[in-house]
Amino acid sequence: MDKIVMVDLHRQYLKIKSEIDSAIQQVINDSAFIKGPDVREFEKELAQYLGAKHVIACGNGTDALQVSLMSCGLQKGDEVITPDFTFVSTVEVVALLGLKPVLVDVDYDTFNMSIPLLEKAITRKTKAIIPVHLFGQCANMGEIMKLARENDIVVIEDAAQALGAVYDDGRGLKAKAGTIGHIGCTSFFPSKNLGCYGDGGAIITNDDNLADKISLIINHGMKIKYHNEILGVNSRLDTIQAAVLRVKLKYLDQYALARQKAALFYDRELRNARGIVLPGRVPYSSHVFHQYTLRLEGIDREIFRNSLWSKGIPTGVYYPLPLHVQKAFEYLNLNMNHFPVSDNLCNQVVSLPMHTELDEEQLDYITQNILEIIRESNG
Predict the structure, then answer these.
(1) For labelling alongside 158, which of 23, 104, 110, 368 has CA 20 to 30 A away?
(2) How far is residue 213's CA from residue 265's CA, in Å, rounded to a whole number?
(3) How many CB atoms sit inside 10 A of residue 14's CB?
């Protein structure tokens, strides 16, 4: 049996090695390392895959979020609502731009933003909502867009963990993650479902005016070289990364199927395990399983993780601390009692190995060891 890892990028590479090597070599031969033709072609191909009008590649997923906010004409002090249970970049960019982060708690089953709490958090100062499609499953975009329309709020989807997931509420709204809001953001960090071999990101929109402004911002505010129309940043996807992504994009749906197959194996073997709560599924979204995250009830997480580690099985905790307790956000003077779900999740969640190369022997080894640990812990 091959060594079990959280994400097996090497074995994935070996399956497409000739295509990747050829694509990288072509960039080196052309020596167009910045803004080479592969960047433009990748933007077109990803837009076609997503069914979106515009994809603008950028340096990373955090830049995608920051540039998106910069493009919306928000003013200092405007409120931006985000979930509390997410990676820091979602809130970090809000604070860096002088906007006010407003954190809301999430649902136990889906880990995504609670719609009732979102509605309660909206004020006249709310100018943007950033729903996060956490772990590979869409937030409830139908309800989020309804609230946004009613309150004239811009929606920026953080789809970094859910590229390829499909939202379908059965009431006419059917689209891929990142294409439903006014703007969508994604990351191509190597471990993402569509990952490059370095840093990378992209911004997605169907709005021509937003696309033009975003394209300006990521290039120092320039349309014509040395003519700076607005204040911008330097955020580019380099050509080698674009070439890698062009190859891997062809396999993205295949990769999603492999992850879903592994998730179904976990579901089947662990569904009756005492103290383990499987990842919830919603009827309105497919799940592409960036992570397969359990909740442990009545099980000591550190003992559980250490027991698995001793058997050669790694695990992860995403996330060990909610944002409302992070020192960086002390200045917000948040009510610590407003986030009971996030608090509990941070003490309960554990993610199992999840990637495209998991085979049945590995999955069986992982699940049988988990079941043995559960039996031992229950006496």
Answers:
(1) 23
(2) 45
(3) 12
Backbone angles phi, psi at 259, to 5 degrees: -65, -40
Burial environment of residue 59 by CB neighbours within 10 A (0 to 12, 13 to 18, 19 or more): buried
pTM of the model: 0.96
Q: Using CA atoms, how far apart are residues 339 and 334, in angstroms rounded to an integer?
A: 10
* Residue 351, pLDDT above cutoff 80: yes
Residue pair 8/355 in contact by the 8 Å Cβ criterion: yes
Rounded CA-CA distance 375/134 in Å is 30
d(CA 171, CA 211): 28
Whole-number Å distance between alpha carbons of 35 and 188: 17
